[in-house]
Amino acid sequence: MFRVTRSATEEGILRHKILHEVSAGLSIFFLVRRPSWVFQCVKDKGCRRQPRVNSTVPEGTVLYDTVDVCRTVCGAQGGLWPRPQSVTLGTHFVKIHPDSLRFDFVDAPTETKELLEEMGGVLTFNLLAECGGTVTEAAELPVAVYVSVKSSDVSLTWLTDEQYTLEVQSKTDELSVRVTAETVYGARHGLETFSQLVTGNRTDPTRTRCGLLAVTGVKIKDHPAYAHRGFLLDTSRNFIPMHDIKRMIDGMATTKLNVFHWHVTDTHSFPLESKRVPQFTRYGAYTPQEVYSTAEVNKLVQYARVRGIRVVIEIDAPAHAGNGWQWGQEHGFGDLAVCVNAEPWRSLCIQPPCGQLNPANSEVYRFLKELYTDIADAIPQPPLLHMGGDEVFMNCWNSSQEIVSYMTSRGYDLSTDGYMRLWGEFQSKVLDIWDDILHEAGVKTKQPVMLWSSELTQIRHIKRYLRKDRYVIEVWEPKESPLLNQLTTLGYRVISIPKNVWYLDHGFWGNTKYANWRRIYEYKLPKNKFVLGGEVAMWTEFVDSQALDGRVWPRTASVAERLWSDPSSSWRTSEPRLQRLRTRLVARGLRPDVINPGWCAQNDMRCT
Ligand SMILES: *[C@@H]1O[C@H](CO)[C@@H](O)[C@H](O)[C@H]1NC(C)=O
Ligand SMILES: *[C@@H]1O[C@H](CO)[C@@H](O)[C@H](O)[C@H]1NC(C)=O
Ligand SMILES: *[C@@H]1O[C@H](CO)[C@@H](O)[C@H](O)[C@H]1NC(C)=O
Fold first, then answer.
1. Predicted confidence (pLDDT) per residue in 43-86, tens digit
2. Which residues does the UniProt record annotate as the domain Glycoside hydrolase family 20 catalytic (predicted)?
3. End of a domain among 170, 196, 222?
4. Which residue(s) pair with 229 in the sheet?
5. Using a 6 Å cutoff on CB, does residue 404 contact ligand 3?
């Protein structure tokens, strides 16, 4: 038996003390009285507000001081999000304290212990967060967390076994928390679920005293419906500082999403530092400060891994590449990209500024190889690369004399089909490059890569240019599009990202429609072994760190539950749990959007 690492816990405590002091400072301006309300858990209806005195509820009814405490035990799944596949919840609470939390990782392979200790640190942080960083009430029982893991494999892939079981029982001398899992990542999910069985209980109106309550008599058996549960963040349209990205990772970990799809570059800016090719950020970053250094990227990858999340870096190509690639002529390498920042832009790209890599210039492949090598260095093996591949504009390539001559020399005509051949050639060259890099790095088997759906992935072209054992296609067509089913019928593995429901920027431009959490929740993926999962996307044309949290949360949680639990029930019965998730995210330092008026949050299902 040993305690969680001091550093992780202390960092957690410190972060929360700061948050707490700010809120304590504010609260002295208000004279808060003991609330007139208590909360009752009503069968199938969630938590409902009741007057504290002379309540009309029958004698013997349990009443809770806060709605969060009520929600933790109310309903079949209490306050858990995403809902577990199978769960039995008790109704009794035990007071616990983070100081009397002990971890036992004896039943886990050595290779997993470092990760487990860090995962324990995250759990401690999350428990403290329920009380704003300081738990003032004493424990009734110490907590012993027994974690058993079978596999020594700590890689994160589509084959990673994420199932776990969790049991919480009060014994005479301890609250026993037992997590069993095949992998360390399954164990992490179990610890996350345990944290959601614990709630802060504010015991006085000035909010200076707070106790932690843990539900006992719990049995959970859980596994994800889909292996790929992604959140896409674009950091090219607008730069998103690293601490904001980490906060998004915290939200992902809370909701058991497991892939951070980092759309790090685009035509607008190139913020990803390449040690091998410093020109990318020198010419591509908005400012020297708006750069992700290699050291920061390495830290982020580790931060995500401790939270069960794989980082998938996307270098969009051959389109969506411009700023960051415009230094070729100056350095004697010719044009690495064409149409960069060209005007008028409308016929040359989807949105300004334009830019497309120049497949006629062999130097492009040399610098892509350097960049991919940097990425392979940053990501634990086996790395998964997203090669982009959307929205190639034939007109842009067709406007370059160099490319037209290259086409002619290769015997490609200047029709759309000719340009498909050029694109296919580009794709096969970059895949070879990636294979070479991984081979040199000692990865034994050829790894699949991800690619956006496009003209090239239409069924009339795809078989000719993209092998189904090598490419996983991310389909971003509207949910009504037949493409996803067509591709799975051909045997291609796909990731679903239906733009008219799971694009979080919709509703902020053009005639796109905002999808609220309910609409997002209702989209169901086709049931098919070739559908690896889905993603929700935050494109950042119209958001930066100022409004990021509210744009992303809590809507992203809808996707998370769809991909983890794939419930057959509608959003209606989920709303009380989503309310609880929201207060949890707030406690953990996120700033999610509100779901409805406070009265509705105190009267579950009376506003639906
Ligand atoms: C509550 O009930 C008590 C006695 O049953 C009565 O004296 C008191 O006036 C009631 N208070 C309110 C606010 O109705
Ligand atoms: C929460 O704290 C209050 C004190 O204000 C206490 O009366 C109540 O019993 C606590 N709730 C539980 C479930 O222990
Ligand atoms: C490229 O330009 C030529 C004329 O220069 C035209 O005939 C051809 O249709 C164009 N190709 C595409 C795909 O637009």
1. 999 999 999 887 778 888 899 999 999 999 999 999 999 999 99
2. 226-566
3. 222
4. 534
5. no
